[in-house]
Amino acid sequence: MWPLRLAWLLAALAPPATSSPTASPPDKASIFADLSAAELRAVRTFLMGRPELGLSPSRGGPLAKNTLFLVELLPPKKELALRYLDHGGPRPRRQARAVVFFGGQAEPNVTEFAVGPLPRPSSYRPLRFKGGRAVPFTARPMTQLEYELLHRTLAAATEPLYRLLRDATGFWFHNCSRRCLTFSDIAPRGVAPGERRSWLVLQRFVEGFFLHPVGLEVLVDHRDPDPRRWAVRQLWYNGHYFSSPQELAQRYEQGTLAVARLEEPPSRQLFSSYEPRGRFATGTPTAVHGAKVCEPQGRRYQLRGNRLEYGGWSLAFRLRSSAGLQLFDLRFNGERLAYEVSVQEAVAFYGGHTPAAMQTKYMDAGWGMGSVTYELARGVDCPEVATYLDAHHLYDADGPVRFSNAICVFELPTGVPLRRHFDSDFQGGYNFYAGLEGQALVLRTTSTVYNYDYIWDFLLYPNGVMEAKVHATGFIHATFYTPQGRRYGSRVHSHVLGNLHTHLVHYKVDLDVAGTGNSFETMDVLFENISNPWSPGTRSRGEPGRGGRRGFPPRHGARAGGSAPRRGDGPDPAPVPRRYHMAVTRRHENEPSSSSIYAQNDPWEPLVSFEGFIRNNETIEDQDLVAWVTVGFLHVPHAEDIPNTATPGNAVGFFLRPFNFFDEDPSVASRSPVIVRPLDPPTFSRLEIQRWTPASPGPCVAPEPFAYNGTYRPV
């Protein structure tokens, strides 16, 4: 019997036929490259062939079986990677991380395995969580099979409600064809460890169904591996609770139910659709293309496999199906600045009056946040001139699935100079003007986690600054409007409440500045009163002075304020460092991430507890350190979130900025500045214009029409 474990999904980057990166991955960067489709197949074939595991296909059949849930790269240990990268040591063995659901046992469990060596695996071993804890079977992420069984359970349970749903909404579950209901499920799935009870929000299945709740929410207990033992435990309809569908149906038949009757949705220009409606008052044109990004003299970056280079920057990257983008070996002018910078978790805590709304505390790593990287649309999600890369995910599937154009890379004009100065002579002229165009290289992917779309960016600037940024867009998580619900959100449509929520996103930053031995310090800036040396007898106040730097020998966390939930505010997702803007800890191989794919369905006894990272008072002076960074914002939904939340004002992130690291701004190496000097002041009729780029940028965007496929299929 295997201890309860889940390994993580495998994502492999490969350029599609339409992109043109050069050559194959350089040997050193490829130790961090995602597994290829062939490697994914090899891992699955090897594990499926082990009789002692007793694995069955994931799709179809019963839940009570053993299945391979996901596979992804198991990165090498840092010590081995650095020995290889910096000292000519042996190349680390390439391994996969595999997650197996052992549901076909008397005591179901989840187990994680290390599988290798790749590309031809021949052995596997269990992976252990810190403290040796096992993964409860109830903590496992949801699968497509479990959703199909939930749908059947819900269709059968709501059969007595056919007349109510038909009369009130015009849609139903039982034997529906075109006018069907669907549902969104809520997590955590219960209120205590070991539970698996999900509130399901029923919605009309139309375009943008997230904004079409019908006023019915159903609590289904689906803990048992045998769906025949699943049961509806409670219902909520239009502000009232019911113990069974039969009770609710009886109240309707008796005429004692307060019925919420919904208007028939229009066939065109539905409020939840993107179809244009209305007019701008100015009449300026919108039926023509707007400004575009172009590369007039070609690309100024190099992409070789998973190695990306731009100006002074170089890095390796991968796309984890479990949590998303992960950068390794981040360097500027050949000097390593960080060993790893990666997305760890995205959470959203909601408030509301309905049971589903008050229960919603999403932790998106538990929903395969890195695996839902659907096709990026050229000219919309990324510029037409971007380089697009495919991803392969083996997540709740019977083989690798190819996601076309899941990642893009492009150089972005920022629209503001990186730096500039106009040196006035204060007599109507000037001594010189100088400016440097603002540009950054963007590495981007998206995660569509059901209703929300996250746009994940890493930006590299020529002056040695790196920015991590995430935009939130997509549909708001909405529930049925009741007057009591207005305490917890805004009425955004006739029967729709946009629920108040807080977004928190967490990153891991393993800085290696001038080596792995780093310390953490803060600098205080104070106002001071001093005697004025040029005016005896007077004192000067207001010039800031340094109050000194403070080092923190123990592990340190700067507490987050604002709307971050506090301990005791319902289910406590301890794996997420939600109480801290930043926490600094010593790096440990058994603390690779701050959350896990199990946190969503068991936040009460998490396998990875971030609080445990910072409670042992280790010194952080001259050590290999990790900064855990949390960014976020409070979202009070409003009518302008219809049909979707817009990206302006809904982006957060952080910067890595050099501080006395370089002798000067390293962007002086750029050949993009412009310097203008007058040769004949004060007439200014002759100018010396210095440029190190061609005088004219030349033609811009290529004329190909827009095209999109959007499929993701087994390969």
UniProtKB/TrEMBL annotation:
| Sorted UniProt keywords | Copper, Metal-binding, Oxidoreductase, Signal, TPQ
Quick one: signal sequence residues? 1-19
* Record's GO cellular component terms: plasma membrane
Please list the residues that carry the modification 2',4',5'-topaquinone. Y452
Q: What is its EC number?
A: 1.4.3.-
Which EC class, in a word? oxidoreductase
Q: How is it modified after translation?
A: Topaquinone (TPQ) is generated by copper-dependent autoxidation of a specific tyrosyl residue.
User: What is a single Pfam family found in this protein's UniProt entry?
Assistant: Cu_amine_oxid
Protein's name according to its UniProt entry: Amine oxidase
- Primary gene name: Aoc1
